[in-house]
Design goal:
mainly alpha; 3 helices; mitochondrion; Tom22; mitochondrion outer membrane; membrane; Mitochondrial import receptor subunit TOM22 homolog
Amino acid sequence: MAPGELDLDSGVESLPVSSKDMTPEKPKALPELEDDDDEDLDETLAERLWGLTEMFPESVRNASYSLSTGAVGGAKGLYSFSRSAFWVIFSSSLILFAPVLLEVERAQMEEQQRNQTKQVLLGPNSAMAMGPPQR
């Protein structure tokens, strides 16, 4: 085949080879941070995960979707129920125990007033010497 002719089998034009082409070239200085992976970073993580869904059959994809939406719905329902239950328990305990706590506080205040009255009438040491008041 003559130089410059087109080889129909390869689709590439054959060129003459000189001895200059056979000498090894000096390697070019590469930048320190050059990565060949830059071409692969064109797609996002979501796009990669979406591409992976094609590996699984339709039934597996539907089951995983149902499971994930059910889990999210269940978590929301559990959160809503726990909020309502906490409110009912807190408000009920406040309504039930507040009168008891107020009555105990009132009894303590009456006791302090009696001790103070005795101390004023009988002197500072008389309230302690008598002991607890009798009912």
